Amino acid sequence: MSEKNIDDVTKRINELYHKKEKEGLTPEEEAERKELHKKFLENFRAGFKQQIEDMVILDKNGKEVTSEKAKKAQRKKGLRKD
User: Fold this and answer.
1) The pLDDT value given to residue 34
2) Of 5, 24, 50, 62, which residue is 20 to 30 A from 15 by alpha carbon distance?
3) pLDDT at residue 53, as a whole number
């Protein structure tokens, strides 16, 4: 999802939240809110997973201690050559 698209989703979620607090939502608006929330969470989880998979962890001596699972994901993406 593009950054512009996610900004639009976030803006609409906030609009629906404020409407819900003031006057309540119609069943259609509630369904829209749930769908937008689902899209937002999918995007958040994908971004978080990307950050974790791309992370390289070093101990205090500078030795890499990245997990094997992360290394495997990095190799699959072509980010590692070992």
Assistant:
1) 96
2) 50
3) 87
Average pLDDT over residues 17-27: 96
Residue with tokens 């069943």: 27
Closest listed residue to residue 29, CA positions, set 42, 37, 8: 37
**Residue 13 burial (CB count, 10 A):** 16
CA atoms within 13 A on the CB side of 68: 0
Distance of alpha carbon 51 from alpha carbon 70, whole angstroms? 10
Start-to-end C-alpha separation, the chain: 31
Closest CA to 53 of 31, 38, 69, 37: 69
- Distance between CA atoms of 10 and 36, rounded to whole angstroms? 8
